[in-house]
Each structure stands twice: as structure tokens, then as C-alpha cells.
């Protein structure tokens, strides 16, 4: 069902997205058990909730375009992306995922746009951010190097299996935010349940993978030379968490988590159970927005005709530019992503 059951010549209707699933060997079962992701995959490591990437396109799950890919809909309606410069190509500039790390991910790095364009057939690079939805008590991640290193040092450490002694290991807790610019060597650790917002790219260079065997029975490939070309080798401090400054309006609160030239991410808290006014929401003509619900549930009400739909934990809603006005009712937490 769409958030708008009527055709309208000027305002655009939000719609739900259905994700693509990935069964990478380090994944777990939380996306099935806690978020209701119905995939015949074992394990279920990632779901690509909002994606036009050919390696994992999301599907429109409600409204008049139900069953089409998001890419197909945006080709029909490029105006859904808005007038923001990041959307001038007609392609959505972001890729939004849930990630369940039952085991450690590889130590890896992503190239810049400039490097990728030159060396990867015009691909985008990847800058990304992580929001920690949940974490086990011992969960951690790798964020850059704890001291300045050289390429020769890293090659020797990779050969000896001692790369981790050079890495900056950071403990994580629920609600933490990490911004990962391209060139930052990193790895998600076991026990992390994450929402990832990134450039629309699937380009990763592995430095080290614990000598793991892939599903094909072979060691998973590394990309050491390219990784060393793009990696920032200076020491990085453990990232500081953003100040939790909440802006309050009737029925909702918001917190800015990250902002860069590729995306802006806010935490949005809806709680209208004890207030009269529902949380109003709409987009203007400048940009689309995406609501990723990671906790709670509620109802979205179309202010034009009064129709309503339910949303739940795990749902992803695409809000086209110049959308119909809606009101959200319930108790839920979202990430709100836009350019």
C-alpha cells in the first residue's frame, strides 16, 4: 500500500522498499529474527534496504510501482530525487544497509571517487557511516592505525598475520556513530548490528581476512596493492561521538549524526502516545529522503485523504522530493537520510 491512494498531479507519494539480501560468511541471523527479513539465505549478513546498485537493487514494495526496482522508478520519475547537485546524474547517490556481524569482517579500505574513476572503470569510491543499532558487551571495531605506518611495514605484517597490532581498536556500544571517509582502513567486529549509509558503490579492497575460506573452498581474495595505494597511513585518534543534542518538536525529536557532501543522516524519534499533535513530515523539491525504522512501530497518515498505513521495525520508506504531507503516529526510532 502507498501512503497516498489517490493520484496527484503535483505531490509525490512515499513508498516502501524491499531489500536485496547478502549471505557473506561472517553474517548471522539477527536480521531474520529481530527485523523480520524473509530471505532463504544462511547466514544473512546484509540487507540493502535502499539501493539502485546492480549488485543488489531494492524493489518497490507498495503503491502503483510495486514490483519495479527503485532504479526503474527513478528512470520514470527522476524528479523524485529532487534538485540537489548530488542527484544531477539521475542516480540515487546513497546505498543504505543493515549489517549483522556475527563474526569479524575483513580489514579493508575504500578508494576515493578520483581513484575509483581512474582505476575502476568510472566507479564511485566509498565514504560511509555506521550507526550501531546494537552491540554485544565485548563488541569492537577497527578504525585506522594506532601509529604511523609504512607500506613495507603493512606488507610484512600481512605476511606474518600481525596486521592487527598496528590497528586502532575501538570498543562500541549501542547508539555510537562512526564516520568512515574513503582511505580509512577499517573493520566491523563481531557482535555489531549496524545501519550503514554510504556512497552508491560496492568497491572494497581487502587488506587482511584472517586466512578465511570462502564458500568456494578457497581463500577469499585480497587486494593488497590497491589497498596500500589508497590507504591513509598516519595515526588516527579514536573517533569522538557526536554530542547528543536533540531538537524537539511536538511528538518528535531529532539529532544530527553525520553530514558530508554525499549524505546527511539524522536520528528521528517519534513518540506521539502522550501528545495530541502527531509528528508532521514532508519533503520539498530540493531532495528525496529515506526513513529507515530500526526500532518500534506506528502509523503514517496521509494528510490529503486520511488514508493510513502501518510501519514496523525494519521497514524502509522512500520519500520522493515534493512529497505529500504525512503525519507519523506511534513510538519508533528512524534514521532519516537525505542529500
Spell out the key features of this protein:
Jelly Rolls, mainly beta, 5 helices, disordered N terminus, 339 residues, ten-stranded antiparallel β-sheet, six-stranded antiparallel β-sheet
Please give the structural blueprint:
Layout lengths: L14 E4 L1 E3 L7 H4 L12 E5 L8 E2 L9 H7 L17 E8 L5 E3 L3 H7 L8 E8 L4 E6 L5 H10 L6 E5 L5 E4 L5 E3 L3 E8 L5 E4 L15 H7 L16 E3 L2 E8 L4 E8 L7 E3 L7 E14 L5 E5 L3 E4 L6 E13 L1
Antiparallel strand pairs: 1-4, 1-20, 2-3, 3-5, 5-12, 6-13, 7-10, 7-12, 8-9, 8-11, 14-15, 15-16, 16-21, 17-21, 18-19, 18-20, 18-21
Characterise this structure.
It is a single chain. This protein has 339 residues and is mainly beta. Helix content is 10%, strand content 36%. The strands form 4 sheets. Strands 1, 4, 14, 15, 16, 17, 18, 19, 20 and 21 form a 10-stranded antiparallel β-sheet that branches. A 6-stranded antiparallel β-sheet has the order 2-3-5-12-7-10, with no helix packed on it. A 3-stranded antiparallel β-sheet has the order 9-8-11, with no helix packed on it. It starts with 14 loop residues before the first strand and ends with a strand. Residues 1-7 have low confidence and may be disordered.
Question: Care to give the gist of this entry?
Answer:
The chain is mainly beta and 339 residues long. It has helices at residues 30-33, 70-76, 113-119, 151-160, 224-230, and strands at 15-18, 20-22, 46-50, 59-60, 94-101, 107-109, 128-135, 140-145, 167-171, 177-180, 186-188, 192-199, 205-208, 247-249, 252-259, 264-271, 279-281, 289-302, 308-312, 316-319, 326-338.
Amino acid at each position: 500500500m502507498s501512503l497516498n491512494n489517490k493520484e496527484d498531479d503535483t505531490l509525490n507519494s512515499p513508498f516502501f522498499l524491499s531489500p536485496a539480501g547478502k549471505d557473506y560468511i561472517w553474517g548471522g541471523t539477527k536480521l531474520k529474527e529481530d527485523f523480520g527479513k524473509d530471505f532463504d539465505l544462511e547466514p544473512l549478513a546484509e540487507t540493502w534496504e535502499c539501493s539502485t546498485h546492480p549488485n543488489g537493487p531494492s524493489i518497490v514494495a507498495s503503491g502503483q510501482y510495486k514490483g519495479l526496482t527503485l532504479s526503474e522508478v527513478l528512470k520514470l520519475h527522476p524528479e523524485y530525487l529532487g534538485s540537489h547537485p548530488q542527484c544531477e546524474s539521475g542516480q540515487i547517490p546513497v546505498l543504505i544497509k543493515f549489517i549483522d556481524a556475527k563474526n569479524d569482517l575483513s580489514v579493508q579500505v575504500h578508494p576515493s571517487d578520483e581513484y575509483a574513476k581512474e582505476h575502476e572503470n568510472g566507479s564511485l569510491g566509498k565514504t560511509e557511516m555506521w550507526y550501531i543499532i546494537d552491540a554485544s558487551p565485548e563488541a569492537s571495531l577497527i578504525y585506522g592505525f594506532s601509529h604511523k605506518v609504512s607500506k613495507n611495514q603493512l606488507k610484512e605484517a600481512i605476511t606474518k598475520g600481525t596486521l592487527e597490532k598496528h590497528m586502532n581498536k575501538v570498543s562500541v556500544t549501542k547508539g555510537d556513530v562512526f564516520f568512515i571517509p574513503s582511505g580509512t582502513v577499517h573493520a566491523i567486529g563481531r557482535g555489531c548490528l549496524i545501519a550503514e549509509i554510504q556512497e552508491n558503490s560496492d568497491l572494497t579492497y581487502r587488506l587482511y581476512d584472517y586466512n578465511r575460506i570462502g564458500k568456494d573452498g578457497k581463500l577469499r581474495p585480497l587486494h593488497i596493492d590497491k589497498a596500500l595505494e589508497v590507504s591513509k597511513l598516519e595515526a588516527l585518534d579514536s573517533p569522538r561521538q557526536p554530542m547528543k543534542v536533540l531538537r524537539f518538536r511536538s511528538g518528535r525529536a531529532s539529532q544530527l549524526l553525520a553530514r558530508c557532501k554525499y549524505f546527511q543522516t539524522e536520528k528521528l524519534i517519534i513518540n506521539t502516545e502522550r501528545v495530541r499533535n502527531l509528528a508532521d513530515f514532508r519533503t520539498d523539491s530540493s531532495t528525496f529522503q529515506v526513513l529507515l525504522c530500526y526500532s518500534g512501530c506506528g502509523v503514517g497518515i496521509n494528510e490529503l485523504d486520511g488514508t493510513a498505513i502501518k510501519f514496523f521495525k525494519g521497514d524502509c520508506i522512500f520519500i520522493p522530493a515534493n512529497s505529500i504531507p504525512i503525519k507519523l503516529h506511534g513510538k519508533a526510532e528512524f534514521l532519516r537520510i537525505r542529500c
